Input
Amino acid sequence: MVVEATQQYKGLYHVLGGVISPMDGVGPGDLQIESLINRVKDGGVKEIILALSTTMEGDTTNFYLYRKLEKSGVKLSIIARGVSIGDELEYTDEITLGRSIVNRTAFNGTV
Output
């Protein structure tokens, strides 16, 4: 619903139903990962945008999906991560700020 509210994405969705979280007893078999892999195998999928929470569990799930799909020929991308508009840099954690610097974009006069 959050992605849909942006009105910036016009493709199809695949809902995994959560993230891999061993501490909570959630493994890959508990999610809709095999059905995603089957969709890719059936053809027609050009890109998968991984839009998961920026948590350890979200990153683990992203990596798992990457390993499962890296040889499929489908473009894999993740949503941008970084400092939010309105945030103060002095309160931003080092990992987020570091990723923001590494993945910076060209400034074209607009924000």
